[in-house]
Amino acid sequence: MSSPSPAAVKAWLLDLQARIVHALELADGKPFARDAWQRPEGGGGISRVIEEGNVFERGGVNFSHVMGANLPPSAAAGRPELAGRSWEAMGVSLVLHPRNPYAPTVHMNVRFFTTTAEGQEPVWWFGGGMDLTPYYGDEDDARHFHGTCRDALAPYGADLHPRFKQWCDDYFYLKHRKEPRGVGGIFFDDFNAPGFEQSYAMTQSVGESFVKAYLPILMARKDTPYGERERDFQAYRRGRYVEFNLVFDRGTLFGLQSGGRTEAILMSMPPIVKWRYDWQPEAGSAEARLTTDFLVHRDWLQQ
Fold first, then answer.
1. Considering its fold, how many domains does the chain have in total?
2. Which compartments is it annotated to reside in (predicted)?
């Protein structure tokens, strides 16, 4: 498979979506709804969504395969010379918002882009990653998540994990708040340097590692006792998630700019959110520790 094979990537993405949904349904005990949709401009997708589940207050695992005549600005931001090309994009993107405040929110996506122009070779690349957003931080959880990310990348080069971790730290950062969105993970984009076969294998490894990275954390935290105070803080911190996705996230911008399905694009939003004016948690509290101990860029694998 020395040249790009969109058909092979699409088959894997659909299978990955099905397997992740199956694992999450077993964890929650409630099935995910299935919503297949078509995009008038070309392509479509399958949204798998759960709301008011036993574990997940809201979550979605979306597959999309869309195409168009002019590459949107958000997709061409790093490569302005590709603006205006015809394009094809496919991927799986998920966000899970557990009800229990001690169980972190998580995001993961893997995607494949290819662009074409008459008389020129296709330009393609992979992107993706995953990141963890706790409301009540736990160092063991952070170490497990980052360790799984490291292990997924290790066969493809020792330099990838530190590079993609730093990229994640830089990307999932609320500039107007001067704070990270969570404890990070890995992020990569415009990835094609090793050639199609290696780039695809590395992306597969990232996608396949998601369940191993997240499910043990979820199962350990989902039954932790909590009260109104914890739910209130969770809703406050979820506001940061909304701010990032609406202001900075390239995936959200690409979806909206490309005429994507709004319901699927905004599936990532948490169902209950609060904003407060200039509120700060009590010094020394578990809520304050989130900022002082966890919303910092650090090497979680350093003992």
1. 1
2. Cytoplasm
